[in-house]
Design goal:
Strand order of the largest sheet: 1-7-6-5-4-2-3
Strand content: 35-45%
Number of strands: 7
CATH topology: Cytidine Deaminase, domain 2
Shape: globular
Oligomer: single chain
CATH architecture: 3-Layer(aba) Sandwich
Order of helices and strands: EHEEHEHEEE
Number of domains: 1
Helix content: 10-25%
Distance between the termini: 21 Å
Length: 134
């Protein structure tokens, strides 16, 4: 996937979640159809860390179940970088194990938050064009 459209209200909600979660990383899943996000699933970062995240398994299971019943699919996995830019860390690249999703990183390290998307496969990172639909 080389592009992804995110409704402004969902993008804004992710940024608020990232700001409120700082100084720890926040995480979640975005679902929809084709290349258009329709739903946000906030996840708990069980690591409670400012450098990495692990999604709470029961929340993940509930999100997947909800996606199936809504006839949508996981299009993106997001997390924040509270202290670093919106680009994949070595750990992000190493742990990018879910195929066919966009990895979205939200940086709240600067006064104006940055939100960027990446395709990560076989340790190769390609930026994905994100359109915030206002």
């Amino acid at each position: 996937m080389l592009k992804l459209t995110i409704p402004a209200d969902i993008a804004d909600e992710i940024i608020v979640q990232a700001k409120q979660g700082a100084p720890l990383e926040i995480c979640g899943i975005l679902a929809g159809k084709s290349d258009h996000i329709e739903k946000l699933y906030k996840m708990t970062n069980t690591d409670k860390s400012n450098e990495h995240y692990t999604m709470e398994p029961q929340e993940q299971f509930a999100a997947i179940k909800n996606m199936r019943s809504a006839n949508t699919k996981m299009l993106a996995i997001y997390h924040s970088h509270p202290e670093t830019p919106a680009r994949p860390s070595e750990e992000d690249i190493r742990l990018a194990l879910t195929p066919d999703v966009v990895y979205i990183i939200i940086s709240v390290a600067e006064p104006t938050p940055a939100i960027k998307g990446f395709n990560i496969e076989d340790n190769k990172v390609t930026e994905v064009h994100l359109t915030i639909e206002r």
